[in-house]
């Protein structure tokens, strides 16, 4: 049965940011058949099940390319105001946050993801605790099995652990669930592990995600093997002060030939930005997380100048107050106060739709024939008279009204 | 009957930002009797009606020193992205926004004010449309009757209109409702009107509020009598191009000897900041409004350096998405990303409590013996183990749990 979903405004989220007034999407099964005016689609598909929302604003389902679901139990436990104190507090409280109550917290967090109009997430899985919840959720999930480990004496164990998680996640592979590989960061993964993990990534196909240049402490460590991370690793490595495993550029070179999504990049310098651009990497920015941990936001103009597509994501509840992309969009709108308001609003919309889809290699993120029928319909009073649709949607959207993933209506709490 | 309201954390909101653990406020009638540990207050007042909130965080009721309630019907009508286009859209849509539906919109907006834990507002009234709603609300209200008018031929009429509104508002004067005077701005009020209005302000006592240096267009006009405002006034003055009535400094000089709260000040230069400091003026900042209209935020460090106390306010729904101070605080926390996180959070809390009370000349804004029993109690899971109370409260507070104004419990929707 063909469905037609019509709305007062339809945001195609193509590169020209075209809009339709009284537009609609026709879809069959998991795919979009056509995007046109509601009237024309009704004529073309007279048998279709059609609905029209006169206060509606229809977008492709939003894509939250980077989050950590496993830490959803954090609310006021972790310390903010410095990457060093934050990471130390994560180590201290990790077991409690991932213990009793973690699953319930993850379920609540996913409800929030859906109600913000998100249809796809990129979830970094550190321990596999989130595997079954995500595999059984109605979301489209890119499940990034994260490899971590810099201490040579622990590498074999950590590799086996990673491989076990990866294999287990592969059992759940489906049209909506894609197992992938994430590399934790340049400071925490041995090049030996990185190379082996990249072979697994090649076997799987698809994008690799990695945190990169999130904090000043990271640069200090990678370039000079000193500072916070020196003491941090010494504690874990039994008093022996190790050295950094690679410079930022050497790390990027390891990723050559691989589709990569870098995460954060707040501290990237121009050389690193140029290198990332030459790799064809995308960059996911999480402004709320960056502000809470490091006290600095990504310099968007530098990233744009380097020609790197940036996308917006929430990060996990370990460093944010919600997994709602709507809230992240609002913060980004106001926090980047010097960006021209309307064009910035449009860029932000693209950063959670088309550009996020590009970064993750998805057949969605746009309303276009042949793409997945992942659709998010919101209601906004007065949208019919509005000429600043992207802006007003970011300002006012609180909860999605109707959500489709692969052409199936999803219940939103 | 004495009441004791106890909570896991009590934020006194004094200049040292002291906190009590398992603290409480005892109050009788409209006044705070004592602030101490819950246990001690129970012993001191054994007959009191006492309640304790183990997840509670208790603050003085919040103070939203600057808003325009009359424009509450705006949601997506007005144009953002430039002061010029915004002001033009206000003129075009003013009658509709203030027409049918305005009162219902104002009531809804006040519900939101209360549910954000606000006990006092400074409301700029342009037409008196909000008078009865505010006079009958449970909020503490500073009702700023606004004088406007720069065209000499209309001055008499506008003065009579202002005086009529002022007198009418004086009929509602009470312990919670204070009629005051606001001067619209340096560009829109003739010095002749300003002087007369200031005499009324002297008669009433209390603070005068005025928009000041909100936009680049304002400076261009005041200093060079050209730009957007040149055309704008020419339209209203029948084709004759008028000249600016005073420079920014001359305007400030008119306010000499008067307790003043300036609003916005985004474009103030150092000379003007120094002059404002010498007047003992406070400065109310509305970051969301500033970003939407002018695309720039107030440079807080300059304001602090000049020694001017700043406070945070929402402005009206004509230039904001909500009248919730909680949302404004969150935006300010993230938008001023370079301010040190924890101390900035504490400053922000003071900017809607103690400092706002100072700016408006209120006997509230702090939890201290003898002040008004205006109290806002929130619940925050894990507050007992939390060491970053101000920060976590700003991050997570969505809705007040219990609100007292002048010692009376107020229903919150």
UniProtKB/TrEMBL annotation, chains A, B:
GO molecular function list: hydrolase activity, acting on carbon-nitrogen (but not peptide) bonds; peptidase activity
Matches recorded under Pfam families: Amidohydro_1
InterPro entries: Amidohydro-rel (IPR006680), Metal-dep_hydrolase_composite (IPR011059), Metal_Hydrolase (IPR032466), MTA/SAH_deaminase (IPR050287)
Keyword Hydrolase: yes
UniProt xrefs under Gene3D superfamilies: Metal-dependent hydrolases, Urease, subunit C, domain 1
Domain Amidohydrolase-related, first and last residues per copy: 57-410
UniProt KW keywords: Hydrolase, Protease
Keyword Protease attached: yes
Residue spans crossing the bilayer: none
Gene Ontology BP term (one): proteolysis
Protein name: PROTEASE (PSPA)
């Amino acid at each position: 049965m063909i469905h037609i979903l019509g709305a007062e405004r339809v945001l195609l989220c193509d590169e020209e940011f075209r809009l339709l007034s009284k537009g609609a999407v026709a879809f069959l099964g998991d795919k979009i058949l056509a995007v046109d005016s509601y009237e024309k689609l009704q004529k073309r598909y007279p048998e279709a099940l059609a609905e029209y929302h006169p206060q509606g604003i229809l977008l492709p389902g939003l894509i939250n390319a980077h989050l950590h679901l496993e830490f959803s139990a954090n609310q006021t436990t972790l310390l903010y105001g410095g990457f060093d104190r934050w990471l130390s507090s994560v180590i201290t409280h990790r077991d409690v946050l991932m213990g009793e109550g973690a699953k319930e917290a993850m379920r609540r967090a996913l409800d929030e993801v859906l109600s913000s109009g998100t249809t796809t997430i990129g979830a970094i899985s550190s321990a596999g605790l989130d595997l079954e919840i995500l595999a059984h959720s109605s979301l489209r999930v890119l499940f990034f099995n994260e490899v971590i480990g810099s201490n040579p004496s622990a590498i074999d164990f950590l590799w086996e652990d990673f491989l076990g998680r990866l294999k287990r996640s592969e059992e759940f592979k489906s049209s909506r669930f894609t197992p992938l590989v994430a590399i934790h960061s340049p400071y925490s993964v041995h090049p030996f592990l990185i190379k082996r993990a990249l072979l697994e990534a090649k076997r799987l196909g698809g994008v690799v995600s990695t945190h990169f240049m999130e904090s000043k402490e990271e640069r200090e460590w990678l370039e000079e093997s000193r500072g916070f991370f020196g003491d941090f690793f010494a504690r874990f490595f039994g008093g022996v002060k190790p050295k950094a495993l690679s410079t930022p550029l050497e790390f990027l070179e390891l990723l050559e030939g691989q589709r990569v999504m870098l995460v954060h990049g707040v501290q990237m310098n121009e050389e690193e930005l140029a290198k990332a651009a030459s790799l064809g990497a995308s960059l996911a920015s999480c402004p709320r997380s960056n502000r809470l941990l490091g006290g600095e936001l990504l310099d968007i103009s530098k990233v744009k100048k380097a020609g790197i597509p940036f996308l917006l994501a929430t990060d996990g509840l370990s460093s944010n107050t919600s997994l709602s992309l709507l809230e992240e969009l609002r913060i980004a709108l106001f926090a980047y106060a010097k960006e021209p308001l309307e064009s910035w609003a449009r860029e932000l919309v693209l950063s959670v739709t088309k550009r996020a889809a590009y970064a993750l290699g998805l057949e969605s993120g746009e309303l276009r024939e042949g793409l997945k029928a992942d659709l998010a319909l919101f209601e906004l009073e007065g949208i019919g008279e509005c000429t600043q649709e992207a802006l007003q949607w970011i300002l006012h959207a609180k909860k999605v009204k109707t959500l489709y993933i692969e052409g199936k209506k999803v219940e939103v709490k």
